[in-house]
Request: fold
Amino acid sequence: MHTSSSAAPAPVAASARPGGSAALVSLDSLALRVPARVVDWAPATTEHEQGLLLRLMEIGFLPGELVRVVSAGFPGADPLAVRIGQATFALRRHEASMVLVQPEANA
Reply:
């Protein structure tokens, strides 16, 4: 019998979200070159998604971090090139869909 001691990351409470005026969107639906802040993660419903969220957190997709999608693959728009901090990562759309962001108001 396999039991997992690691729990899914807890979502950030709505009151802890910066700003509060702009709607949250998933990173995969953010328009190209629009700056946004990581606010939350989509709920992980499987062990695979839990592992994915942990990997995203380890590479820097944490609440408060500035992020932007700098390009998308062609054809099919997959993968996405995503800039966070001083690093750029290639994420598949299903991976990016796990990260919830709030577009910056001055964008």
Observations:
- The CA atoms of residues 16 and 34 lie 22 Å apart.
